[in-house]
Specification:
With 659 residues, the protein is α+β, with helices and mostly antiparallel strands. It has 25 helices and 24 strands. The mean pLDDT is 85.
C-alpha cells in the first residue's frame, strides 16, 4: 500500500470510528459490537504505525472516545482520566511486558477484571461525598453528582477519611437488574436496552435523578486519583485502603512474571459468568506507583497498564422450533428454541428472533444450523444462518393470535404483527402488572405472582375485578392469610384516590408513558374531556406527535374504553380532575432547587408549595436557577449556587416569601 492509498484508508477509518465513538459514548446507542469497533481501531493503529506522518491530533487513536457533553455542568479533571490500550492476544500482552522491562527492573503486575460500564470520578471532602463526574473526553466530564447519590453501594460518608480523596470507579448495571428491566421494557412494548453497559450509561446520564434511582445501578471503585494526608506507594495498597474505607472493590491478584499474568487472564475469562455484572476483559497494571511515574503515558494511554479484551463467544446450534410470545401491547415476538449450548458460562436454549422481517432476511428455517452469541454477554441473539438442515422447513407466521384466536395485523411502518383483541388473555397478566405498578395505580403488595394466582383462581379477568375482590377470597389463596388479605384490600381502596394521570398511564395506551399521561391530564384536566378531544387537539400538546395523538384518540373511541371507565367510576375510582396550572402567585416564572434537610417540612411538601404558588422546581443548579432552598447538610448544590451567585434562602425565608 502506498502513501496515497494509506491516506484514503486512514480518512475512511477515522470518519467511521468517530461516528461510532459518538454513538457509543454520547448517545449510549452503539450500532456495532465492541469487537467490531476494536478491530477497526486496530487497523487504524497498524496503518499509523506504518505511515507515522498520517497521525493527526484528532485521530481516534490519540484521544479518549467520549466528549464532555452538554447535558450537565462541565467538570475539569485535575487528574486526567486516561483510557487503556487494548490487547487481543497473549503475544500482545508479552509485548507489553517486554516494553515495561526495558524501563523497569523486576516489575510486579496486578491483574483485575475489566468492567464494562461508565467510568466516573467521585470526590470526598472530610469523608463526605461532594461531587461526581463522568470521564467525558478524559480532561473534562459531566457533573452527575445527584445521579451518583442514588447508587446505594457508593458510600456517601467515609469513616476515618482523609481531608480530600478522589477515586475512580465504574458504574454498572448487574445482570439480574438488566434482565428485569429488559423484560419490563419488552412487556410494555418499549425499545429494550441493548446491553448492560448502555443501560448503565443511559441511566447515569438522565437529567431526572428519580429515573436513575429506579435503575438500581452499582459501582466498583478501582483507583485512587488523588489523596491528601495519606501516603500510597503501590496499587495493592490503594485497593486495600479503598476496601477499608467501605468502597466496593473487585478481586485482584499480583504476579511478578507474564506467564502467571496470562494464566490469571484465562482464569477471569473462565469465571466471568460467576460475577454479578458484565466484564469485557482483564486489566494488567504495574503495581509500583514510582514505576508508573517512570513509565509515564502517551497522549491517550498510560504505558504502565494494558487491557486484554475477550472476543465475543459464538456457537453453532440447531433451531428446533419457533414459539410466539404475545406482549402487553399485543406484539407477537418469535422466540427461537435451540438445541442447548454452553455460551459465556450459561446454557442457552432460547433467543429472540425479533420479528417476521428478521427471519425472512436471514433466510432462517426450523431445522437450520444458526450462529448465536450473547449480546453484551447477556442477551442471547441469533447472528446468522450457517447452513440449511436436510429437512428444514420455512416458518410461517400465524394469521391469528395463538393466545385468543383473534386476527393479527401488521400496521404500516411497523415490523411487528399485533393481536387486535385488547382482552387477549396473553396480554391480560402484563396489563394487570402494569396497572398496579408503582408509577401507575401503585397497589402495594399486588405483585406478578399474586396477580397470576388471582387469574388462575378465576377471581379477576379485568382491571375492574381488582376493585371487587373480597378479603376472604384473597385469604384462601396459597401463602396468603387474613392479615395479608386485609392489607391488600386497604391498598386497593387507597388506589381509588390516585391522581388522574396515574390512571391514564395505568390504562396502558400505546406510546403513552407516565410523562405523556401527565401532559394529557394537565391539558384536558379530566377523563370526560379526553373522550371529547379531537386528534388535532391532542397533537397540539407540546411534546406530542401524530402517532401519540392517534393512539390516544383511537383508545378513547373504543366502545370497551367507555364501558371500562364507567365501571371504574361506579366502583369508586375517583378520577378527580387536575387543577389547572397556576396562572398567578408569589413564584410565577421562578425556578427553585431544593437541597439538604428542611426543619419542618419535606422536600415534596416544599415542592408542592412552590408549584401551588406558580413556581417550578429543578434537580440541578444552573444560571437559570432563581433560588436555592437550603436545609441542613446541604451538599454540592449549595456550593455551586454560591459560586454562581444565586440567592440562597432558608425555610423561614421561603415561608415569608409565600406570605
Amino acid at each position: 500500500m502506498n502513501i496515497e492509498e494509506a491516506k484514503l484508508k486512514v480518512q475512511e477509518l477515522t470518519k467511521e470510528l468517530n461516528y461510532h465513538n459518538d454513538r457509543y459514548y454520547n448517545h449510549d446507542d452503539p450500532l456495532i459490537s465492541d469487537y467490531e469497533y476494536d478491530a477497526m481501531l486496530r487497523d487504524l493503529e497498524n496503518l499509523e504505525a506504518e505511515f507515522p506522518d498520517l497521525i493527526t491530533a484528532d485521530s481516534p487513536t490519540q484521544k479518549v472516545g467520549g466528549s464532555k457533553g452538554e447535558k450537565f455542568s462541565p467538570v475539569v479533571h485535575s487528574v486526567p482520566m486516561e483510557s487503556l490500550h487494548d490487547s487481543f492476544s497473549a503475544d500482545e500482552i508479552r509485548d507489553f511486558d517486554r516494553k515495561v522491562r526495558e524501563v523497569i527492573d523486576k516489575p510486579v503486575y496486578v491483574v483485575e477484571p475489566k468492567f464494562d460500564g461508565l467510568s466516573v470520578s467521585c470526590e470526598y471532602r472530610n469523608g463526605v461525598f461532594v461531587r461526581g463526574s463522568t470521564r467525558g473526553d478524559g480532561a473534562t466530564g459531566e457533573d452527575v453528582t445527584d445521579n451518583l447519590m442514588t447508587i446505594k453501594s457508593l458510600p456517601k460518608r467515609l469513616k476515618n477519611a482523609p481531608s480530600f480523596l478522589e477515586v475512580r470507579g465504574e458504574v454498572y448495571m448487574s445482570v439480574a437488574t438488566f434482565e428485569r428491566i429488559v423484560a419490563e421494557q419488552e412487556n410494555n412494548g418499549e425499545k429494550p436496552f441493548k446491553n448492560p453497559r448502555n443501560a448503565a450509561a443511559g441511566s447515569l446520564r438522565q437529567k431526572d435523578a428519580k429515573i436513575t434511582a429506579k435503575r438500581d445501578l452499582d459501582i466498583f471503585v478501582f483507583n485512587i486519583q488523588q489523596v491528601d494526608g495519606f501516603e500510597i506507594t503501590t496499587h495493592v495498597q490503594s485497593l486495600n485502603y479503598l476496601t477499608e474505607l467501605g468502597f466496593p472493590t473487585a478481586f485482584y491478584r499480583s504476579y511478578d512474571n507474564v506467564d502467571d499474568v496470562l494464566k490469571e487472564i484465562d482464569y477471569i475469562d473462565e469465571h466471568r459468568g460467576d460475577l454479578p455484572c458484565d466484564i469485557d476483559g482483564a486489566v494488567v497494571k504495574v503495581n509500583s506507583l514510582a514505576d508508573r511515574e517512570i513509565l509515564g503515558s502517551t497522549a491517550k494511554f498510560p504505558r504502565w497498564a494494558e487491557a486484554y479484551k475477550y472476543p465475543p463467544e459464538e456457537k453453532e446450534t440447531e433451531l428446533l422450533d419457533i414459539e410466539i410470545n404475545v406482549g402487553r401491547t399485543g406484539a407477537l415476538t418469535p422466540v427461537g428454541i435451540f438445541k442447548p449450548v454452553l455460551l459465556a458460562g450459561t446454557t442457552v436454549s432460547r433467543a429472540t428472533l425479533h420479528n417476521e422481517d428478521f427471519i425472512r432476511d436471514k433466510g432462517i428455517n426450523i431445522g437450520d444450523t444458526v450462529l448465536i452469541r450473547k449480546a453484551g454477554e447477556i442477551i442471547p441473539e441469533v447472528l446468522s444462518l450457517v447452513r440449511h438442515g436436510a429437512s428444514a422447513e420455512p416458518y410461517t407466521f400465524p394469521e391469528y393470535c395463538p393466545s385468543c384466536g383473534s386476527k393479527v395485523v401488521r400496521e404500516e411502518g411497523e415490523a411487528a404483527l399485533r393481536c387486535t383483541n385488547t382482552d387477549c388473555p396473553a396480554q391480560l397478566l402484563r396489563h394487570l402488572i402494569h396497572f398496579v405498578s408503582r408509577d401507575a395505580m401503585d397497589i402495594d403488595g399486588l405483585g406478578p405472582a399474586l396477580l397470576e394466582q388471582l387469574l388462575n383462581a378465576g377471581l379477576i379477568k379485568t382491571f375492574t375485578d381488582l376493585y371487587q375482590l373480597k378479603a376472604e377470597e384473597i385469604a384462601n389463596l396459597e401463602r396468603m392469610g387474613e392479615k395479608s388479605a386485609d392489607n391488600l384490600i386497604r391498598s386497593i381502596e387507597k388506589s381509588k384516590d390516585a391522581e388522574i394521570y396515574r390512571l391514564v398511564y395505568a390504562l396502558g395506551i400505546r406510546h403513552i408513558g407516565e410523562k405523556a399521561a401527565k401532559l394529557l391530564c394537565e391539558h384536558f384536566l379530566s377523563i370526560d374531556k379526553l373522550f371529547e378531544a379531537s386528534e388535532e387537539e391532542i397533537a397540539a400538546i407540546d411534546g406530542f406527535g401524530a402517532i401519540m395523538a392517534q393512539s390516544v384518540y383511537d383508545y378513547f373511541h373504543l366502545e370497551g374504553t367507555k364501558h371500562l371507565i364507567e365501571e371504574l367510576k361506579e366502583l369508586g375510582v375517583k378520577m378527580t380532575p387536575l387543577q389547572p396550572k397556576v396562572k398567578e402567585g408569589s413564584f410565577i416564572g421562578k425556578t427553585f432547587v431544593l437541597t439538604g434537610t428542611l426543619p419542618t417540612m419535606s422536600r415534596k411538601e416544599a415542592s408542592l408549595l412552590i408549584e401551588q404558588n406558580g413556581g417550578k422546581t429543578s434537580s440541578s443548579v444552573s444560571k437559570k436557577t432563581d433560588y436555592v432552598l437550603a436545609g441542613e447538610d446541604a451538599g454540592s448544590k449549595l456550593t455551586k449556587a454560591q459560586s454562581l451567585g444565586i440567592t440562597i434562602i432558608s425555610e423561614a425565608e421561603f415561608l415569608e416569601m409565600i406570605q
